[in-house]
Backbone:
């Protein structure tokens, strides 16, 4: 059975006056029905741009220059705009990073959720408001009948995030893209939101693409992990394999940065040097000037993403 989502050689570039910025440089991964794949990496590595590319929402002056985005076997890149609009928000939904930028401050909560249902499901205003109440109940918002008449500023950060989740799930999507869904929330609310997403995924059988830099969230929520660096996947494997047997030096560096109970250190670990940006990428691996010498015998050449054991892929010459 083919995967729900399969991405092949995806490349997204920004054609600016100053330079050509290579934000996404040949990504390949898949998400099965009922599975959660986590995209992990430092800020600026291309995680969010990958999500926008999948939905064909890349802002100008960027564009997808190569690759296939196969959703249920259909290449989304080849669809006309009107067909893509029917899929976006309906079969594929997205939770954006900051709920206050996803919600319109001058419209009530019920109207914003209801708009999704009217657009994609053809419900009238009364039916849409009734469905909005049910959705708010499903995502754990108390007094839902009252909340649909409130504005975003009247809700807490955690409640706004639940509203955004309700909007994303309104049309029962097959694939959910969650871009840093717990950003700016306190730890307790983060745990509640991730538990909610996991429950909804199991109940609805959705595939989930989770974009995050929080390895704790990954360990609790993901089935597979793709470690990104400067628009490329460095390591791709089931979550237990990545945490137990990381092979790429970049993955090892990320895991070493996590403080651990019972392991006292004078200072936290860090990854040497800086994150390269898309306009000054070194030749070959983007981890070039940060990679330990034993792992970089062929500097100046990009190592392939190769399978070192079943389901475990690494972009490295010596791993």
Residues:
């Amino acid at each position: 059975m083919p995967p729900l989502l399969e991405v092949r050689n995806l490349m997204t570039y920004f054609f600016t006056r100053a330079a050509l910025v290579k934000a996404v440089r040949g990504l390949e991964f898949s998400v099965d029905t009922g599975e959660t794949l986590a995209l992990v990496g430092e800020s600026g590595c291309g995680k969010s741009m990958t999500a926008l590319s999948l939905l064909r929402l890349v802002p100008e002056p960027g564009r997808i220059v190569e690759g296939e985005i196969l959703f249920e076997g259909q290449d989304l890149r080849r669809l006309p705009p009107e067909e893509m609009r029917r899929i976006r928000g309906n079969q594929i939904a997205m939770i954006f990073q900051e709920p206050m930028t996803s919600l319109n401050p001058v419209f009530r909560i019920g109207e914003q959720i209801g708009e999704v249902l009217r657009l994609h499901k053809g419900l009238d205003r009364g039916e849409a408001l009734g469905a909005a109440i049910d959705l708010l109940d499903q995502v754990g918002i108390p007094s839902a009948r009252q909340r649909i008449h409130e504005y975003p500023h009247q809700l807490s950060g955690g409640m706004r995030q639940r509203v955004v989740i309700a909007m994303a799930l309104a049309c029962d999507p097959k694939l959910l893209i969650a871009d840093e869904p717990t950003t700016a929330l306190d730890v307790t609310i983060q745990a509640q939101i991730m538990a909610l997403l996991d429950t909804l995924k199991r109940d609805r059988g959705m595939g989930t693409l989770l974009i995050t830099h929080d390895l704790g969230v990954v360990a609790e929520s993901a089935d597979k992990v793709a470690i990104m660096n400067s628009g490329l996947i460095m390591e791709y494997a089931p979550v237990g394999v990545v945490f137990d047997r990381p092979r790429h030096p970049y993955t090892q560096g990320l895991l070493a940065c996590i403080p651990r109970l019972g392991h006292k250190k004078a200072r936290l670990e860090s990854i040497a040097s800086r994150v390269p940006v898309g306009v000054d990428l070194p030749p070959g691996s983007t981890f070039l000037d940060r990679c330990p010498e034993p792992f970089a015998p062929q500097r100046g050449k990009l190592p392939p993403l190769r399978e070192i054991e079943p389901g475990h892929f690494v972009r490295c010459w010596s791993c």
In short: The chain has a mean pLDDT of 85.
